[in-house]
Amino acid sequence: QVQLVESGGGLVQAGGSLRLSCAASGRTFSNYYMGWFRQAPGKEREFVARIRWSGASTFYADSVKGRFTISRDNAKNTVYLQMNSLKPEDTAVYFCAAGLSASTLNYWGQGTQVTVSS
């Protein structure tokens, strides 16, 4: 049982930056994978980034490579998504997810809105 709460979304101009946070609770996460997904209006949910809790191995979607960075703070049980050089096409609701497999992230937060203006 894992509870995830996202925060940090907001309105930003193109080229700006935001940092999203995902606070996890309910248990320790040493064997978990954590991921960020996003969904824009009328679009399917899209993978953004993932991280292994132990070891901090990361993987990114091609669309965000070089611009976004996923990280975690073990002491705070929190995963972050640092988003730089934001583009209007990054506008979406961003969701945090967790699971025991990188391909099966079965715990989800409620999402936080990111809006990038032109």
Describe this structure in words.
The protein has 118 residues and is mainly beta. The protein is built from no helices and eleven strands. Strands 2, 4, 5, 6, 9, 10 and 11 form a seven-stranded mixed sheet that branches. The chain has a four-stranded antiparallel sheet with strand order 1-3-8-7, with no helix packed on it. A hairpin with a 5-residue loop joins strand 5 and strand 6. The protein is globular and about 40 Å long. The chain starts with a strand and ends with a strand. The mean pLDDT is 93.
Strand pairing plus helix content: what structural class? mainly beta
What Rg, in angstroms, do the CA atoms define? 13 Å
The parts where pLDDT drops under 50 for at least 5 residues are: none
Termini separation comes to 40 Å
Number of helices: 0
Inertia-based shape: globular
- Major beta-sheet overview: 7 strands, mixed
Mean pLDDT: 93
Number of strands: 11
Write the layout of secondary structure elements.
Layout: E1 3-7, E2 10-13, E3 18-25, E4 33-39, E5 46-52, E6 58-60, E7 68-73, E8 78-83, E9 92-99, E10 107-108, E11 112-117
Parallel strand pairs: 2-11
Antiparallel strand pairs: 1-3, 3-8, 4-5, 4-9, 5-6, 7-8, 9-10, 9-11
